[in-house]
Amino acid sequence: MDEPEGAPVSLVPSERGSVPSGGPSASFPEGHPPTRSLLPGGDPSWRTRRMGDAIFRMLAQGSGALLLVIISVIAVFLVLRTIPALNADTTNFLTTLAWSPDGKPSSFGIEALAFGSVLTSLLALLISVPVAVGVALATSHYAPGWLARPLAYLVDLLAAVPSVVFGLWGLIYLVPNIIAPSKFLNHYLGFIPLFGSNGTYGKSVLAASVVLAVMVIPIVAAISREVFIRTPRDHIEAAWAIGATKWEMVRTAVLPYGRSGVTSGTVLGFGRAIGETIAVALVLSANYDISFHILAPGGNTIAANIANRYGEAGEVGRGALIASGLVLFIITLIVNFGARAISGKGNRGDAS
Amino acid sequence: MKFQRHRAVLGLLAGSGLLLSACGSDTGGGVGSPSTNPGGAVAITCSSGSLLAAGSTAQQNAMAQWIKDYLNKCPGANINYGGGGSGQGVQQFINGQVDFAGSDFPLAQGQEQQSADARCKSGSALNIPMVGGPIAIGYNVPGVTKTLNLSADNLAKIFTGKITNWNDAAIAQDNPGPQLPSLGIQTFHRSDGSGTTYNFTNYLSNDAKTDWTFGTNKNWAAPGGQGAKGSQGVAQGVKSTPGAIGYFELSFATNSQIPYAAVGNAEGKFVPLTQANAVNFLAKAKEPGTGGDLKLQFDYTTTDPTAYPNLLVTYEIVCSKGNAPDKLPLLKNFLGYAASAAGQQELLSQGSIPLPDNLQQQVRSAVESLG
């Protein structure tokens, strides 16, 4: 393909190995290019290519190594800044339900924050994944072509909206308007602890989760759609051939094929949700207790807490926030590995 | 850009003729109109160079105004005040990244003061008060038109969930006249760390000792209630929620037209929030600092019925000695303008309050003695 013009074909080794040639290059086994001594007069284009190879390898390997260095430097930085703060904490970092690192005495704990982070993110996924899969199916298999393409663009556009915009929408529109449905849920389903409340509504975990869900939908939808449209034609035709309806075809051919895509989309969505800072900071009421009452004001997340507390944090306060960042890092790591393990297992097993 | 727009709104709301005219020339793109005090004397002395500062967002509007005034007069200078919060400002000051910091708190004794002193090399780090900010207790009780009286004890009980309804007998006792509606109280507090929370809880810890047990803290520590980010968030929450009560700087109450309470002082007398009453309370503050340091300690025990006891004061943190020689003239001239009568007068349009006269004098001589 990129054989330089003017070079004698018989002397240019081809990686494709399929160039029929009676020249000397035919005698070299695949993958072993000739040494330079065999080239007549050191063809300059050949030398450039070798040099390019070396440079590219160096760049690629360097980038890989640099990434490792950056990650380890960040890890070292986090740990170093964390230790003095953890030493100053007079209470247990893992179980304290308060955040007063600059207080006297200093007291802060991660438990409520970590709980809130995971709870809001899981709720957000619960709301967004079914919708996102629906959007992906609609744009890949249901909507007519003239509609599917703009629809897909719109979904992608939603992913590009800055999160602070979602946060402001949540604060100014969603919070006042979620009160009525919250009261409804509390009135009829209040016997379920999840929908219990102390009589106030609004800046709740539910509101934050809905905002996060809206932010997560485009990610899950885009990735799922990419996989759904790659469903092999054979599978679809086979489903049609045995008389499947459209829904049966989607269920037996598209969804099983796209499962890995939905899973990785969900993992990415979880990452976005758990790391979301400003939107959650604007919407949530920021308490430091553990409560499953998703309709009542309260809840907090690690990322939102960092956004809220950093500006006024003192020496210990900054260390404490960095410690919470480290915990967030670890949670994300665990979730990523967990999801990979699960989706890997699913793919190896029965894929129907 | 942002400041200018903000300023324009504030200026309009303040309705001050002097400031409106200043505003008009700015928005009209007027160049080099010198800022004058009401007496007509120009208070700005020019020097060139550049200054970088950061910190407290409570004084950000005031700083933006002062910087604009100064640069209008002295186009050769370059002054930048980044917000970011007091904690960040102090940190950057200690690291030597800014020439002075704005902070809602004086430097903490011990580690913080030592680090800041070390940055100043031959001198020490001073707390110089510059802007006072009355904290309004805003409420949203439909049908109530007159100013509510809320004692410190009642405020503490409301904000800790011990009083949960507006028709509570304890509130009715302080508010004779038509009965308050039976409506659940929803409290709003800051979800982010802030000097506003610090000073409000400081007032409660001093004047409601038995009912407020959560100490003085820049992070809201009491259970219950709803948190919101920034004074804007609290004001918006109060404005949109019937039965709500919250605390924020006066400018947010006037901008959003939220009614605010007269609060009880140490003796249980109710003091309405006016700029004069706030300045009066500021004037009673003690100055425990030494060596030119002007940090203030509010006198919450005062029984003066014209001293509004719920306010914050924000400081500039500067080096007494050891400032870079090329920055020093500009530093002194700029802060000198901020502390001048003309500069302090600008604060009234921001919903802030000027320092009392005697304190202005002290601040001016402190700025003058910087080296």
Task: Write structural notes for this entry.
The complex is a heterodimer of chains A (352) and B (371). Chain A is mostly helical and 352 residues long. Chain A is 65% helix and 1% strand. Chain A has eleven helices and two strands. Chain A has a two-stranded antiparallel ribbon with strand order 1-2. The longest helix of chain A has 45 residues, at 44-88. Mean pLDDT of chain A is 82; it is low at 1-31 and 348-352. Chain B is α/β, with parallel strands linked by helices and 371 residues long. Chain B contains 14 helices and eleven strands. Chain B has an eight-stranded mixed β-sheet. In chain B, strands 5-9-10 form a three-stranded mixed β-sheet. In chain B, α8 links the parallel β6 and β7. In chain B, α1 (2-14) runs antiparallel to α2 and α12 runs antiparallel to α14. Chain B is elongated and about 65 Å long. Residues 1-41 of chain B have low confidence and may be disordered. The chains are: A mainly alpha (352), B alpha/beta (371). At the A-B interface, β1, α4, α10 and α11 of A face α4, β7 and α9 of B.
